[in-house]
Design goal:
Elements (H helix, E strand, L loop, with lengths): L6 E4 L9 H7 L5 H7 L6 E3 L2 E2 L11 E4 L18 E4 L3 E6 L16 H12 L6 E2 L8 E7 L2 H12 L4 E9 L6 E5 L2 E4 L2 E7 L7 E9 L3 E8 L6 H8 L13 H4 L2 H9 L5 E9 L6 E5 L4 H12 L2
Parallel strand pairs: 8-15
Antiparallel strand pairs: 1-4, 2-3, 2-4, 5-6, 6-8, 7-8, 9-14, 9-15, 10-13, 11-12, 13-14, 15-16
Length: 313
């Protein structure tokens, strides 16, 4: 059985006599589910190199280590695809995702996804990991995508997301002129009962909070920075439409007054997708325990749209 590099914790003097389970859950922040999993393996939990039960008491200076078994994504076909790597270490792979590519294989769509390219990249580098994206980006959305290399890293960032401690910022080009240059949209979202694949603002929906700030105002559109408190499906697209400012290029959540306008026709020649880009992602790095931020610049299609909007302002 092979393992990833261990996570190490040295017990300080003030924690002499702590129960090992407490150290694992309160200091290494191991979830109950992951703890149940690793304690069953031969080298999953050790103290000073010796396998131990989690109910023992630790001593000052003890070296506590947890190890997770190496895993692979055997159901994902390796495929040589271009990847824009922003950062990679033993814990994480951070990519700048292109628009138009799906993150994970789905029924009937087994190749040409981010997962296929990542599995191939790891295979070529001799890295044994299972593909674990820690968040989602729509097919047409570009930007920063984080992929965890171990169950522990995935759990750590997922917990930060639940606690609203992850910074997710987007840039989007939307239609219309804003009266207020910044604000918050606090409107619940749920499925449209008549079109289950579409989301709508409805009082019976799930809580959804979106903050926005206008970066540049153009004659008929605007560049807007958005950051989220929640992560509902299509949240930005639904909320901006609700505000009366649908995303440029978004066919699902457009409004009639923008759909057939001459400006929309011109924008359509320059952009073949919704104008949404995840430009910044920040969280406490599970390996270093320090804040880390990753940024992806505007891709060429959105930069071209911005130049056109500025020229015709």
């Amino acid at each position: 059985m092979s393992y990833y590099e261990p996570l190490v914790y040295m017990v300080p003097p003030e924690e002499e006599g702590f129960i090992l389970k407490t150290v694992l859950q309160k200091r290494l922040m191991v979830s109950r589910k992951l703890l149940s999993r690793i304690k069953l393996t031969e080298q999953g939990i050790t103290v000073n190199g010796v396998r131990q039960y989690i109910n023992i008491k630790v001593k000052a200076g003890d070296r506590v280590e947890i190890r997770m078994e190496e895993e692979t994504s055997e159901d994902i076909l390796p495929q040589d695809l271009p990847l824009h790597i922003l950062h990679e270490d033993e814990h994480l792979l951070i990519l700048a995702k292109d628009a138009g590519i799906i993150v994970h294989p789905t029924h009937g769509h087994y190749v040409n996804t981010i997962a296929n390219g990542v599995v191939y990249h790891w295979q070529q580098a001799g890295i044994i990991c299972r593909f674990r994206p820690v968040h989602r980006l729509d097919q047409e959305t570009s930007g920063v995508l984080a992929i965890a290399k171990t169950p522990y890293v995935h759990q750590q960032i997922s917990e930060q997301m639940i606690q609203h401690q992850v910074k997710k910022e987007y840039l989007t080009f939307v239609w219309g002129r804003f009266e207020e240059t910044k604000g918050t949209i606090n409107e619940p979202i749920d499925r449209d009962p008549e079109q289950p694949h579409v989301r709508i603002v409805t009082p019976e929906g799930y809580s959804a909070v979106t903050h926005y700030e206008v970066v540049e105002q153009y004659a008929q559109a605007a560049l807007v920075r958005i950051w989220l408190e929640t992560g509902r499906t299509h949240q930005i697209r639904v909320h901006m439409r609700h505000l009366g400012h649908p995303l440029i290029g978004d066919k699902m959540y457009t409004l009639p007054e923008f759909e057939t306008s001459p400006a929309a026709e011109e924008a359509g020649k320059r952009l073949n997708r919704q104008a949404l880009h995840a430009f910044r992602l920040g969280f406490v790095h599970p390996g270093t325990r320090e804040w880390a931020e990753f940024n992806a610049p505007l891709p060429a299609d959105l930069a071209g749209l911005q130049a056109w909007l500025q020229k015709n302002n």
